[in-house]
Amino acid sequence: xxxxxxxxxxxxxxxxxxxxxxxxxxxxxxxxxxxxxxxxxxxxxxxxxxxxxxxxxxxxxxxxxxxxxxxxxxxxxxxxxxxxxxxxxxxxxxxxxxxxxxxxxxxxxxxxxxxxxxxxxxxxxxxxxxxxxxxxxxxxxxxxxxxx
Length: 148
Known about the structure:
Blueprint: E1 5-9, H1 15-28, H2 36-44, E2 48-55, E3 58-70, E4 73-83, H3 92-107, E5 111-113, H4 121-129
Parallel strand pairs: 4-5
Antiparallel strand pairs: 1-2, 2-3, 3-4
């Protein structure tokens, strides 16, 4: 079927894939900047899986799963979940999430975390419907000041 949704894990970033990811980035964040060198480095990292959702061969969504060992076990974190605004509401984010959960279980993660802005109500409903539970914690961020 021509408009069938497929989910895969990217293994490389040719110019076409990079261009499609570059197109999605502004829909993810107004402040994020696309860097193809960082994308290439990310895809080479053993601990990172970039999931791509495609319809008719075109990337329409993406999400990143990072797994890492710490003294208390293998942990996972989901980041940068975005679906193209033109195809939202078709269950693509749910399929990306299901694929990441399956991958995390396959590699043996002890827990899988993600964060979401409170304003993303539909995303939060999806995460909760998928088994994620809100935690009573605070998220802190440190942003180093670049050297001149």
